[in-house]
Write a sequence for this structure.
């Protein structure tokens, strides 16, 4: 069963024309460009801010079945550390690789197709970036996180401690021995 493919929006900066490849295996074109990031390129805790710059360095190569797109996408990441809740800002490069099949061929649901000699990189870019984002992003690999008692950021003072608290249910018994530490 062939999936229904939407008509690419020619105005989108992630849509590229393939006319010059002329469906001749071995022809290729190199594209280096900067495009604005689409909305929702990330997950709940880290992602690419909408309309921030994405630097694309791509190679479109005609092969027998279609066009093979390979290259990198360099993005700005913003999010929150999963341990200490500090803001994270970073630049990261992701590998993009997708084979777009020529029309008329039976393809699977997860395969991409060239529509009217155009390739829409939106889904391939999302796959390359979102699937590689960390599930629990950290500001530093050895982040100490927050103190579970008071919420103090332990990265600011690794020796942060609290005096041992007596369980309120046993506080009346501590007076029997005169020792409040046990």
């Amino acid at each position: 069963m062939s999936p229904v493919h939407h008509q690419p929006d020619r105005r989108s900066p992630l849509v590229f024309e393939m006319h010059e490849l002329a469906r001749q295996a071995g022809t290729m074109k190199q594209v280096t460009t900067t495009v604005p990031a689409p909305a929702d390129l990330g997950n709940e805790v880290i992602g690419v801010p909408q309309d921030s710059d994405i630097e694309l360095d791509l190679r479109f190569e005609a092969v027998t079945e279609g066009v093979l797109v390979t290259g990198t996408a360099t993005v700005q990441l913003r999010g929150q550390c999963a341990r200490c809740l500090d803001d994270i800002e970073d630049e990261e490069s992701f590998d993009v690789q997708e084979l777009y099949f020529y029309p008329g061929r039976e393809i699977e649901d997860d395969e991409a197709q060239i529509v009217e000699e155009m390739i829409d990189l939106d889904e391939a870019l999302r796959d390359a970036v979102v699937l590689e984002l960390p599930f629990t992003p950290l500001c530093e690999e050895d982040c100490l996180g927050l103190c579970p008692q008071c919420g103090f950021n332990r990265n600011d003072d690794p020796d942060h401690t609290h005096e041992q608290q007596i369980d309120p249910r046993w506080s009346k018994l501590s007076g029997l021995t005169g020792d409040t530490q046990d």
